[in-house]
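Structure, all two chains, one model.
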Amino acid sequence: MGFTPRGFLGDKPAKAPPLFPFLLTFLLVGSRGDSNAMDNVSTERLAEESHRQDSANLLIFITLLTLTILTIWLFKHRRFRFLHETGLAMIYGVLVGVILRFGVHVPQNMSDVILGCAVNNSPATLLVNVSGRFYEYTLKGEVGRGKGHQVQDDEMLRKVTFDPEVFFNILLPPIIFHAGYSLKRRHFFRNIGSILAYAFVGTVISCFVIGLIMYGFVSFMKAVGQLGGDFFFTDCLFFGAIVSATDPVTVLAIFNELKVDVDLYALLFGESVLNDAVAIVLSSVLLRLEKQGRRGAGAVSSPGDGGPVWPQGEEGWLAENQTFAPRSIVAYQPAGDNSHSFEAMAMLKSFGVFLGVFSGSFALGVATGFMTALVTKFTKLRDFPLLETALFFLMSWSTFLLAEACGFTGVVAVLFCGITQAHYTFNNLSPDSQDRTKQLFELLNFLAENFIFSYMGLTLFSFQSHVFNPLFIFGAFLAVFLGRAANIYPLSFLLNLGRKNKIGSKFQHVMMFAGLRGAMTFALSIRDTATYARQMMFSTTLLIVFFTVWICGGGTTPMLSFMSIPVGVDSDQDSPNSAVLDGSQRRDTKHESAWPFRIWYNFDHNYLKPLLTHSGPPLTATLPTCCGPLARCLTSPQAYENEGRLFDDDSDSILNDATVSSMYADVTVSTDASGRTVNRSSGTRGLSDDCVDHDLALAEHEVAIRGTRLVLPVDDPVEPPTTVTLPSPPSPPGSEPRRQRL
Amino acid sequence: MGFTPRGFLGDKPAKAPPLFPFLLTFLLVGSRGDSNAMDNVSTERLAEESHRQDSANLLIFITLLTLTILTIWLFKHRRFRFLHETGLAMIYGVLVGVILRFGVHVPQNMSDVILGCAVNNSPATLLVNVSGRFYEYTLKGEVGRGKGHQVQDDEMLRKVTFDPEVFFNILLPPIIFHAGYSLKRRHFFRNIGSILAYAFVGTVISCFVIGLIMYGFVSFMKAVGQLGGDFFFTDCLFFGAIVSATDPVTVLAIFNELKVDVDLYALLFGESVLNDAVAIVLSSVLLRLEKQGRRGAGAVSSPGDGGPVWPQGEEGWLAENQTFAPRSIVAYQPAGDNSHSFEAMAMLKSFGVFLGVFSGSFALGVATGFMTALVTKFTKLRDFPLLETALFFLMSWSTFLLAEACGFTGVVAVLFCGITQAHYTFNNLSPDSQDRTKQLFELLNFLAENFIFSYMGLTLFSFQSHVFNPLFIFGAFLAVFLGRAANIYPLSFLLNLGRKNKIGSKFQHVMMFAGLRGAMTFALSIRDTATYARQMMFSTTLLIVFFTVWICGGGTTPMLSFMSIPVGVDSDQDSPNSAVLDGSQRRDTKHESAWPFRIWYNFDHNYLKPLLTHSGPPLTATLPTCCGPLARCLTSPQAYENEGRLFDDDSDSILNDATVSSMYADVTVSTDASGRTVNRSSGTRGLSDDCVDHDLALAEHEVAIRGTRLVLPVDDPVEPPTTVTLPSPPSPPGSEPRRQRL
C-alpha cells in the first residue's frame, strides 16, 4: 500500500515525451506462452463468452434482488421491524461477496493484454490495428496497480464490478425523482424554512466539522506513521461532503409505516432529500477545486520529488514491461505542505460555483417540469394514458440528461423536476396515468434502491483496493457523529427561536439518530477510487453506511418507543404536537411562514397553478386586464366550466366543498376555507372513496368527448373564484389522497 | 468497396506470427501533431466531455420519442390511420439522421489513437500501460476500414450509433415479453395448429425461398460484375432468415383498433410472434454454420489466393502504419466455389442445433414461468403489490439472462416465459399487481418499440457503410414477396384441408399483405455489419422495413375496406366467420383441435392449473389417491374454500356460473359449461364490473387476515369439482377481461 496510483483525475505529466517515434511494450498477462491457445480462442468466441459471463453476473444480482424481495415479504408478513429491506439487501450482498471472493475461482481467460506505450494520455477511444483489422476499444477507467497483478485471481470479482457511473446515471435518478415526486408537499412547505436550514446550512456545517475533525485525525495519523499515502485537506472536506448526505430511504420507510408525527417526518424527509442535492454539488465543487489544486501543484513539483512511489514488492508482474516510465506517477506530489493549496480565494470561488451549479440545476429541473405541465395541459393526451405516461417518463428523464449535457448536476435537476411534476403536472394527468406514473416510479425506486444496497454489500468483499485503517475509521465515526450533532442541535435551537411549532428535544434526538447514510453516500464515494485517500474514504464510508443502516435503521423502533414518541398518527390529521394548528387556525400557517413563502404561495395560487394546470382561478381573473387576451389563451376552459358546474348543481356540494377545502389546506391559502376543513375533508374521504372511480371515469369520458380545441367562453372574467371542482380527483403520488389539487 | 473487411466473425489467421518480440505501430488519427494540445486535454476532461456528449446524444433520442408521442396523439386524436406511430417514429428518425449527416459538423476531438500491433487476436479487455498508469479498455467491436478513414467527419455519427447488442439485450426482450404476455390465449390456442404451421414450416419455407432467389440474383450480379464483394449461399440463407421475421407490431395495432376478425388477428399475431423466435434461432444457427464453414475454408485457402483484397484508393490513411500485415484479411477466401461449404450433413446438423436451441429456450422460459407461478402461489406476496410486481419483473428478466448465460436464445425464452406468466402467474397476482405488470410492460414495450423505429430512421443516414445495390434491392423485394406468398398460400391450402373453420382467400390476401418487417428484422441485420455482404443486407433490410411499415402498414385500412373485410367485431364475441362456433357448439372446439392439444388441455386443466394457481379443481381430486399427501400440500386452500363458498351461498350463483363458464370457455374444456356460456358471461360482465373492485378488496382482506400457513382441511377429496369461484377476478394483460382463470 505504499504507492499512490494517481491519474484518472487528470494530473498532467510534467513534460510530454516525444510522441513519434516511440517504443511500445506489450505483455500478455497470464498468457501461458503458447500461441496456439491464443489462436484458437477467436474473437467471437471471446465475445460470446464475455456476453455469457455478463449475463451470469447480472443474474447474480437479479437472484439477490429476488431473494431480498421474498425475505422482505417474510419480514413484513411477520412484522419484523428490526431490519429494513435495505439492510437485508446488504446482508445478501455481503454473503454473495464472500462466496465470490473465497469460494469461486474462475479460470482466468487469457485474454487480457497489456499494451504499454509511451503516450502520455489515455484517449477515450482506442483503435487497435490488429494485423490489419481495426478494433475499437473504449476507455473503461484506470485500474489499480494491484489489480494488474491479481487479474488472474480476480477476474470474477472484476466482472461483478459495475462502472461507478452506472450508479450516478442510471440508479440514482429514479430514486431521487421518486423522492421529489412522492414528497408530501403540505407538510414539506409548512416546514420549508427549517428544512432549508437543515439541508443547506446544516450540511455545510456538517461537511466542515467532519472535514476539520478528519484533518486532525489524518495529521495525527501522519505523525504516528499510520498513513500509507497522501491525504489532503480537500480530501477531508470531500469526505465530509459525501458522508453528510443522509439517506431518505431507510428510517423514513419505517417512519411512514409507523406513522410517526408528520412534522418530524417532513423535517427528516425534506432534509435528507435536499441534502443529497447539496452534498452532490458540494462534493463536485470540491473535486473541481482539488483538480485545479493538483494541477497547479503538479506544475511546481519536480519529477524526483519524494522519489518514485512504486510498489516495492510487486515488480514481478511488470518484469516484462521494459519501458516503464515512473515519472508521471509522481507528477503530482504536493510541494511540502499538506494544505493542498486550499485558500480563501478558492473557497470563495467554489462557493460561487456551488451556487451556480445548484441554481442552474434547480432552474433546469423546474423548467422541464413546467414544460411537461404545459404540454399535458394543452394537449388532450389524457385520453391515451399510455402516451401520457410515456411522455411524463421521457420528459422527466430528459431533465437528467439535459442537466448533464449542460454541465449541471442531473440528480439535483431531477429532484426539483420531480417536485414540480408532482405539484403541477400530476394534476393534469388522467387518473390512470396518475396511478401509472406513481407505480412506475415506485417500482423503479424500489429496484434501484435494493440494487444499490445489494451492491454495497457485495462491494465489501469484491472491491479490491480496500484500505481499512482502524484509526481513520474511528475518527470517521466520531466525526460523523459530531458533524450530525453540530448540524441538528445548534440549528434546532436557532430555528426554535423563530418557530411557533417548536422542534422538541426528543425530536432533535430522533433527527440526530436518524441521520442514516445510504445510496447517495455510496455513489459519491465509489465514483472515484483511484487514489489511496479515496480508497480509504470508500472503505470507511462503506462501514459507516453498514453501521447506520443496520444499527440506526434497526434501532429506530426501539428508539421511538424509548423516547415515547407517539406512533400511529394519521398523516392527514395533524400530529398531537401541532394539534394547535387545527382547521380554524389553519390560515395562521400562512402568516406563520416567512413573507417570501407567503409571496410564493400567492404567486403559485394566482398565476402558476392556473397557468400550468386546469385548477385554480382563471388567469383572466388574476392577471391585470391589460393581459386579457393572453390570459384567455392560457386559461384552461375547465377552469370556467368547473366554475359553472359548481354554480349549477348543489347536490354534490359537500364533496366539492371538502375537496376545495383540502386544496386550500394544502397550500394554506385559505381565502374562504371554512374552519372545519380538516375534519370535513377527512370525513368525506371515507365516504367518497367508493364513488370516486366511477366519477373519474365519467369525468374522463366527458373530457374525451369534449375534443381538443380550447373552447373560450366569452363570459366576463368573474371575481376571484375560490370554489373550483375537480373534474378528476387524483390520488397523489405519495400516500395523501387528493390533496395536491392546488 | 473492393475489399472485404472480415474478422469479427472469428476467421483464424492462417499462421500465427511470433508473439514476442513484436513491433507495434502507432498512429494518431487526426492529431494535429502538436503535443501540447494533447497534454492539455487531460483524461478527466475527455471523460467529462464524452459523458456530456453521450447525454446530449441520448437527449436527441428522447426528444425524438417525445415528438413522436405528441404526433401520435395528434394522429390518434384526429383519427388519421394512414400512418402508424412506428412509421412516424421512423420519419422523425430519418429527419434527425439527415440533420446529423449533413447539418452538424462537430470538430473532431483528437482523442482517437490507432494502435497497430502484430498480435493476431483482439482481446476482450485491453490494459494499456500509458507511461506507467494502466487503463482498461473494453472491446467495442471491429470498425470498418472506411471508418478509420473518416473518423474526422463522422465523430458525431459514430457517437449516435448504439452497440447492436443493445437492441438484442435491452430493447427486444420487453417487446417480446409483452407480445407473449398480452397474447389472447383463447383464440391463440384455438388456432394453435395453423399458427405453428405458419410460424415454423412457413418461416423455413420463406427463408429458403428467399435464400434461393437471392442466390440466383447474387450469381447473376456476379456474372454481370455488379457485386463488389463476396456473397455466399449461407449469406443468402441468412438474409432469408432475417427478413422472414414478420413484425407483430404495426398492422396488429391497427387490427386491434379496428377490431378485425379475431381468428385472423390470432393467426397473424401468433404467427408473427412465433416466427420472430424461429427467425432468431434460424439465423443464429446459420451464423454458426457459416463460421464453421469459414473457419474450415480459411484453413485450406492459401494466403495469396485471390490476392490481398486491399482497398486500392485508400492507402493514405495507413501511410504511417509500418508493419501492416495484409495476410489475415484474406485468411478466408473460399477455394473457388461460391457454395460456401454448404452441405447436406451440415444442414442436418444445423437442424438438430435448431431444435436443441429452440426447445432449450422454450423449456427455460416455461420453467421460469412455472417458478414464478409457484412462488406467487405459495407466498402471500399479494398483500404487497410493489413486491409482487418487482418479483414478477425480475423473474421475467432473469429468464432472458439465464437463457443467454446457458447459451440459449434469450428472446425466445422470454416469449414463452411471457405466455406462461400470463397463463398461470397472472392469476395468482393481486388485482393491483395485475394492472401494474400489464401497464409496466405496455410502457416498456411502447418505449422500446418506438425507440427502435426512431433509430431505424436515423440509421438510414447515420450508418456509414451502406451498400445500396439496386439490383440486389430489387431482388430482395421480389424475394420477400415470393417468400411470403410461398409461405401463406400453399400452407393455407393445406391447413384448410384439416380446418373446419376455413381460412378464406380474403384472409389469405390480408395475411400476405400484412407481412410487415420490423424491429426483429432490424435487430437481426444490424447485429453484424462487418462484411460487405452483411452491409448490403443491412441496407436492403432497412429499405424493406421502411417500405413495409410505410406502404403496407399505411395501406392496411384501405386494404381491409377494399377486401370488404368486416371491422368492428367485438373480440369477445365470435367473428361472423366463426359464428358457427356459438356457445352450444363450443365443446366442439376441443374436438376440432388435434388430439395432442386435447391431451394438453386436459393435462393443463387437471394438473397444471391446480398446481400453479389457486383455481381449477383441487389436485386431491385429479391426482391418483397414492399421491394424496403431496396433492394436499400443493393444492391451494382457496381451491377448497372457493368450493365451499359456492355451495354455501347461492345468491351470487349467476356471477359464479358466468365466471366459471368463461373460464371453461377460455380453455375449451367444458365438462359442465352450459350452452349459453358466451352470451351469459358477456352479459354478466357489464353487470359485474361495478362490484368487482369491492369484491376484490374484500377478498384480498380476507387473504391478508388468513395468514400464510396452508390451512389444509381434512375433508375427503370431493368429486372433480367443476365449479370454482374466483376470489379475485383478474383483468387480464390483454383486453379480454376475466378469461384467464383456468
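DSSP finds 26 helices and four strands in chain B.
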